[in-house]
Amino acid sequence: MEIDENVRHIVYLLRATRQQTRKLFYAQATKHGLTESWCLVLGVLSRTDNCSLGQLAKLIHVGNSTTSGIVERMAAAGLITKNRLANNQRQVVITLTAKGQETYERVQQEYWGVLAPLADLPAGKATEIIENLTELTTKLEEITQNGK
């Protein structure tokens, strides 16, 4: 099978982009004594009320057991709370504490501050990139769903 060089280049650029954004994200997380996973959890919980463990796992793209460990450690650090629902004692809801919210706001502000130069892209160029990446993501999801 002959490999299309444009496809190869797209895949390599996606990987390079992911590596660079992860470096930036990791640097901001460690600056605040957090892990990347903890930052993701803080972000999800800042936008989601009464999140279950299963919902959280799905939103941060890891398994339930991994999420459970993350939640336990974050609760011990005072960043989140776990509470059982009054009407369903089996279901646990996870929420941010005031400390968790403050931490998230600091990390988010610094992270997006570091990425501020991306706003210098011309508006038309930014829109074009968004449209192209959306199309590419949709195509990759189709490939994944079809098991190819």
Automatic annotation (TrEMBL):
Q: Which domain of life is it from?
A: Bacteria
Q: HTH marR-type domain: from which residue to which, for each copy?
A: 7-142
Annotated Pfam families? MarR_2 (PF12802)
Q: List the protein's name.
A: HTH marR-type domain-containing protein
Recorded source organism is Ligilactobacillus pabuli
